[in-house]
Amino acid sequence: MSLTAVELGKRIKDKEVTVEEAVKAALSQIKAVEDRVHSYVTVDEEGALKRAAEVQRLIDNKQLTGSLAGVPVAIKDNMCTQGMLTTCSSKILGNFKPTYTAQAVLNLEEAGAIMIGKTNMDEFAMGSTTETSAFGATKNPWNTEHVPGGSSGGSCSAVAAQECSFALGSDTGGSIRQPSSFCGVTGIKPTYGTVSRYGLIAYGSSLDQIGPVAKDVTDCASILEAIASYDSKDSTSIKREDYNFTSALVNDVKGMRIGIPRDYFGEGLDAEVKNAVLKAADELKAKGAIVEEFDLSLVEYAIPAYYIIASAEASSNLARFDGVKFGYRTKEFEGLHNMYKKSRSEGFGPEVKRRIMLGSFVLSSGYYDAYYIKALKTKALIKKAFDKAFEKYDVILGPAAPTTAPKLGESLSDPIKMYLGDIYTISVNLAGLPGISVPCGIDSKGLPIGLQLIGDCFKENKIIQTAYTFECTRKYERCDIAKEGDK
How confident is the model at residue 487 (pLDDT cuts 50, 70, 90)? Predict the structure, then answer.
């Protein structure tokens, strides 16, 4: 499992490794480390081995020739998988087995990837630490006393601990990039509309986007190529002219204009994170990039705008979980309204309730104009600020998170502090832009640091090329838990 997804795919194609061996290696690593990291909610050993035999046959018959054929993948548990538990890490969906599969997952299955299981997450993707899960917290494989980040913490932890070759996550306000940074892996949030949201259980519909988590940039580009597609079933899906992301895997940034927002390097940024990110900028400068600082306005308004919009959309999206058609229903109730109330009170966790209440408040009459409309106007201004920046720069460079992974329990006691941890990632979602997080160092506590690169809409190839060029200057570092699988 120490191979990247693309390397493993090549070995399978060259008949050096069978699909069954690849799947068994992932399952054996899960058995060895899962009790320490808790990356998964569901592991489908029987289904994975059955699918491995089918895929092997298709590879042998030359019907499957892609780079991901036979490679084990983990799926975040907010993407529907037909006949397999899809819980969103919530008690309210603890018994939910969908009748259909998310389009992004179907695209991966068509490419021949083998689904190993579903990964743990913050309940309904609401949180930055994967501690709000109804099934218990996921731990960071680099140090199990620390969080893996969130909400795609299970996916990032599974990749870092080598419990799968790659994973899918979803990103509403940084939920792929921030945990990738904390777990020392690479994650891409594509331009909004690039990957179908059909089958993704909605949190904030105007912000949610599915993306890949893997060991390196090459893997992420290959996975994105496989999952990106136009889908008429998703009204926000965009028909792109080009889905060729692997063509950007070029070690060259000569003449590339990279902007560093001064606003990202002020108060609240950990000194070790700052130094590692600026050192990465120097590496790119040494390779011929033109790197300069600039002012990106409105940064301080991003967090309030995001939490108003996301919570408003969440309160609307989560209204469907009422104990009637599917999911958890309270055992004792008197009348319909009491059943709704008790089912939702017992089924949702505190963070989800907090956001539903906040969302219902900002959408209520009398407050709609004061908060929600104002947040939408701010969102438009943030997009305009990025448009202005991209007139001058190809890529914007900054940290993925203000600190490395905090200890378990530290953030939950102070929700506002947890929300502030999203400061560098949420603007990207508000503006619908692509962003990537790549490892750029380790702090004095032995925890990974992530570098974030942001591109203009539909300019994934620029951030992929920049990230790949930077990645070529350093080696992928694995945590001790991952190395155990080598023995």
Answer: low
Which strands sit side by side in the sheet containing 290-294, from one edge to the other? 40-43, 114-119, 72-76, 166-171, 209-214, 186-189, 435-442, 448-455, 395-399, 257-261, 290-294
pTM of this prediction?
0.96
pLDDT tens per residue across span 146-194: 999 989 999 999 999 999 999 999 999 999 999 999 999 999 999 999 9
CA distance 31 to 28: 5
Task: Look up 90 and say whether it is catalytic.
Answer: no
User: Which of these is catalytic: 76, 118, 189, 462?
Assistant: 76
Structure tokens at 451: 């570098």
Q: How far apart are the first and last CA of the chain?
A: 11
Told to judge if 377 belongs to the known catalytic residues of this protein, a careful annotator would answer: no
175 as an active site residue: the answer is yes
Question: Torsion angle, CA of 5/7/9/10, rounded to 10 degrees?
Answer: 170
User: In 146-269, which ranges are E strands?
Assistant: 166-171, 186-189, 209-214, 257-261
| Active-site residue, selected from the candidate residues 39, 67, 133, 175 | 175
Contact 103, 199 (CB under 8 A): yes
Name the active-site residue from 90, 128, 151, 157: 151
Report whether 41 contacts 119 (CB < 8 A). Answer: yes
Q: Is the pLDDT of residue 48 over 80?
A: yes
288 backbone dihedrals φ, ψ, rounded to 5°:
105, 5
